[in-house]
TrEMBL record:
Residues 576-603 form a coiled coil. This is UvrD-like helicase ATP-binding domain-containing protein. ATP binds at G232, A233, A234, G235, S236, G237, K238, T239. It comes from Blautia hansenii DSM 20583. Residues 211-545 form the UvrD-like helicase ATP-binding domain. It comes from the Bacteria. The lineage of its organism: Bacteria, Bacillati, Bacillota, Clostridia, Lachnospirales. GO terms for biological process: recombinational repair. One of its GO terms (molecular function) is DNA binding. Keywords: ATP-binding, Coiled coil, Helicase, Hydrolase, Nucleotide-binding.
Length: 695
């Protein structure tokens, strides 16, 4: 940050910012003392409630009223304490850096501007008092991100408020001390941003509240559109924006939206760890995250013993790019394939059924009656759940007639009878039959323990499940975030639409498709979600230096990306005859030893190369970590991984390792790998004639 100060910025020796900081520090300390006192009192209260209960519980009224009242009071006190505890945590965070910006805004018709200090959270001396610091998500804080000096407006609950920004300030405060402050009306934002991006003090993704850009702010604060789709260049801040958007939505709808109501579909657990600290840093609790693949495997567990995972499929593709196989795999995720599936499912309505008369203790439903119930009364229920509705109807009539309740064993016996009217309810068998009928290879006929479902069949089979059995909709999820949208197929979006009816933020980059062919989900998302969708493009890339971004864009001929002007070392390309030589060269260039950088990565194409590189490097550099599909932590040091697991992550230095073959998939891999580098990129290739890669 030193060079920032060296820039001839407007700097005041003892400005209002520093004075205000002294005042705020005092007030924050005082507030923390107050909260500590309240916490102590609350704790005493809880203890005395416990003592009272144990002393008196034998004498409490027999109906439990007093006991209930006691429990309620205890519950309330515990909650109050919990709230105070969270509040104290926020205050403690604020004491380190209470504010980072200030806008002086003169409302239309007023003479004097008002000063609004902006920080990570609201702070006022007493509840109901005018805040001394405004949360970055408060309506007035929008002025800070959206305008320079001059005419401006913001939307408050009372309506749009117009006026003029007379001055705007930026501050950096660490450990309660002012590091720098300056007036930022002279387009200084880029310098701060450059300093932020050029720094390498953070290991995980950092929060960007101090430097949110105008176009990013518009996405973060958008509450109008139900489905927001963000197509953004590599490093344009999609993930950061999505997380800040979540923090914003939580702040604005506290009553209805809790962090447990938000779900992120993330590519893998390492990525989840990599982003996990952002929301707590922004004063919010963490949200749920899940990999859609894991969810799908769980959903199919009762029909298949195991499923192949996506990464195996990529490895297979890398090893022997059988074009026919790849084409078939894609087709299985397409709209045309679903149309075929629909035709088959229609045929099943007849084909699967074998209606019979059911008689139970003198009560009878004829074959025709059952058929009528099945095809008319309950026609809207999915086929394989429908007979259960007929059964319930049968039991209901019987119980009403005989004025009794059937015991469990009798119900089970009847259940068996009714289910026998299906030829089979085994999804594996039905899906396999469908494959055969469409001219594809059926799944192997084997016992449950031997059923291993290829990845290409996971989602088609899940689709079958949801079409044939009733779906339980995800009601607790009120906002869904889908990161890396380009890695989800048409079919997956159809299933997601079935499962989630809530607002969504969908983000990704078609240029980072993990396949030979670029997938642009925007070609089909509007058709799936209709008018609810709003598409936003983010074309400015922030992560890489100009040298790295230009190099990466050339690999796959990505056009139209605006690069943030930050320069660094040129990309180093070299060819080697063995992997070992490459790794030695990487070690030579590694700057973690000198503490210049915090993170570096050796990114390979295949798992085999990654395993070899890891074994080799960990002997020479102890702080080497391996990320495989089961890893769940992102850490400081040298990471070794494959390109497909490095998605979404970033490192100060990247060493890309690949063969010289130039297939479309390898180009994609190269692009993903190169765009992971913040400051330095080394791209190493194996000579073509090199047979023994390692020695
Ligand atoms: N407004 C900003 N201020 C400071 N840093 C920013 C800003 N926007 C983005 N960045 C930085 O740019 C880098 C890339 O951000 P992020 O990972 O969110 O991008 P992305 O679009 O999700 O990238 P990718 O698709 O390549 O994984 C991060 O280091 C992030 O902190």
């Amino acid at each position: 940050m030193i060079f920032l100060i060296e820039l001839k910025l407007w700097r005041t020796s003892m400005s209002q910012g520093t004075e205000f900081l002294t005042l705020i520090n005092e007030k924050l300390k005082h507030k923390i003392q107050e909260v500590n006192h309240a916490l102590l009192e609350g704790q005493k209260e809880i203890e005395s409630m416990h003592t009272y209960y144990w002393d008196n519980y034998t004498e409490m009224d027999q109906y439990g009223y007093e006991n209930f009242d006691n429990q309620q009071a205890l519950f309330q006190q515990v909650n109050a304490n919990q709230e105070q505890f969270i509040y104290r945590q926020r205050l403690e965070k604020m004491i380190d850096s209470p504010f980072f910006g200030r806008v002086d805004f003169c409302y239309e018709g007023e003479e004097e501007p008002e000063q609004f200090y902006i920080g990570i959270g609201n702070f006022s001396e007493k509840t109901g008092h005018v805040p001394l610091i405004y949360d970055w998500r408060a309506p007035v804080s929008g002025l800070f991100y959206d305008y320079d000096k001059g005419a401006a407006c913001y939307t408050a609950p009372a309506g749009v408020l117009h006026g003029e920004i007379t001055s705007k300030w930026q501050y950096k405060i660490r450990r309660g001390k002012m590091v720098y402050e300056f007036e930022s009306d002279v387009k200084i934002d880029d310098d701060i941003l450059k300093a932020e991006l050029g720094s390498n003090g953070d290991v995980q993704l950092k929060n960007i509240v101090r430097t949110i850009q105008k176009e990013q702010n518009a996405i973060i604060r958008n509450t109008k559109d139900k489905i927001m789709v963000i197509q953004g260049a590599a490093g344009s801040g999609k993930t950061s924006v999505a997380l800040h958007r979540i923090a914003y939505l939580l702040y604005h709808d506290r009553e209805h939206l809790k962090s447990s109501n938000i779900l992120v579909l993330s590519p893998n657990s390492v990525f989840s760890d990599y982003i996990s600290h952002i929301l707590p840093e922004l004063g919010e609790e963490n949200i749920q995250e899940m990999s859609f693949d894991l969810y799908a495997y769980k959903e199919l567990k009762s029909f298949v013993y195991d499923c192949e995972d996506r990464y195996h499929q990529i490895e297979r593709e890398l090893a022997f790019a059988d074009k026919k196989q790849i084409k078939r795999m894609r087709w299985k995720q397409s709209k045309e394939f679903l149309d075929e599936a629909e035709a088959f499912l229609l045929e099943l309505e007849d084909e699967l059924m074998n209606f019979r008369t059911v008689e139970y203790k003198g009560f009878e439903k004829t074959e025709q009656e059952i058929l009528n119930l099945f095809y008319f009364k309950f026609q809207d229920i999915p086929l394989l759940s429908r007979m259960e509705a007929v059964l319930e109807y049968f039991i209901d009539e019987y119980e009403t007639l005989k004025d009794c309740t059937l015991p469990e064993e009798e119900r089970d016996m009847l259940y068996g009878k009714f289910m026998k009217m299906y030829e089979t309810k085994d999804l594996y068998v039905l899906y396999s039959r469908f494959l055969k009928r469409t001219g594809l290879k059926a799944l192997p006929h084997c016992s449950y323990e031997k059923r291993l479902l290829p990845y290409e069949d996971v989602y088609p089979m899940l689709y079958f499940k949801y079409r044939l059995f009733s779906v339980t909709q995800q009601k607790t999820i009120k906002h869904l975030v889908i990161d890396e949208m380009q890695d989800y197929s048409y079919l997956q979006y159809i299933i997601l639409k079935e499962l989630f009816h809530c607002p969504m933020t969908i983000l990704g980059d078609k240029a980072q498709t993990m396949e030979a062919e670029v997938q642009d989900v925007l070609e089909f998302l509007p058709e799936i979600y209709g008018k609810q969708i709003r598409v936003i493009y983010m074309n400015k890339s922030y992560r890489n230096t100009v040298e790295i971004a230009s190099y990466a864009n050339e690999i796959t001929d990505v056009q139209g990306v605006e690069l943030f002007e930050r320069h660094g070392k040129p990309v180093e390309e070299k060819t080697f005859s063995t992997l070992t030589e490459m790794l030695e060269e990487a070690l030579k260039n590694l700057k973690l030893q000198e503490n210049e950088y915090e993170t570096a990565a050796v990114i390979t194409t295949t798992e085999e190369e990654a395993v070899f590189a890891y074994q080799y490097l960990k002997e020479k550099f102890p702080q080497t970590f391996y990320i495989d599909k089961d890893s769940s932590v992102f850490q400081k040091g040298l990471t070794v991984t494959t390109f497909y697991l490095a998605k979404g992550l970033e490192f100060d230095q990247v060493f890309g390792i690949s063969e010289k073959r130039n297939t479309p998939l390898l180009k994609q891999a190269g692009y993903i790998c190169a765009t992971r580098a913040l400051h330095e990129l080394y791209m190493y290739q194996l000579e073509e004639e090199s047979h023994d890669k390692r020695a």
